[in-house]
Predict the 3D structure of the following.
Amino acid sequence: MNVFGVDIGGSGIKGAPVDLARGDLSDDRFKVLTPHPATPESVVESVREVADHFGWRGRPVGVTFPGVVTDGTTRTAANVDNGWIGVDAAGMLSEELRSPVTVVNDADAAGIAEMTFGAGRGRRGTVILLTFGTGIGSAVFTDGRLVPNTELGHLELDGMDAEKRASTRAKEDHDLSWHHWARRVERYLAHVEMLFSPELFVIGGGVSRKAEKFLPLIGHVRAEIVPAQLQNNAGIVGAAMAAAGKAGSPAAETGARPTSSAAASD
């Protein structure tokens, strides 16, 4: 069964059909740059461009959002325009795409995929996926069940949001070496570990493709630390899973609402 997944990020919006049996993309993903300012109207138009690339109409679509999502409504907007706060994102996207749409927090979607098909598969206890990119996203699982919308990238570190210090954007903005950046990531992981005592950290986002450059530099953390296996495709896969009702956790569905079938018709 193929379902379409779209991952909205601070720098890019990418999507592809997903083979839910394999937990992998069934076609090469298509990506467009995130518009600036990333208003609801401009982002929705970009999502439509991604869906149109595959001729996807009238069939389920899962969409991730970089912020808190409850019942299809976006509640925060850290790395996109503040106009997203309080928007019925599921309804707006469904109307534009003419498809039933499910919206879920971006890191939660990535976590759902990694727990089902990737690095967290079969792991019990507390598992925390952290996505490093424009910001830092988080997905917390206890015995495989998701605690949605944790947004741990906004924990305080050095007097500011942790993602301002330890995201990949922070690395790029401050031209940090891998060694210097790894020290910041280490301090952040140690702080999260102090609060949650996880057995496993899964490190996701685009930087997971370069895990060998920084993970060996991280010490002083008791939990096991591994790179995400689905890497930067995890959000697309998890979004499709949520749209198909295969998120594997009632908690995951709290932030996802399929719209009415009427909106899917031409």
Notes: The radius of gyration is 17 Å. The chain has eight helices and 16 strands. The chain has a mean pLDDT of 92.
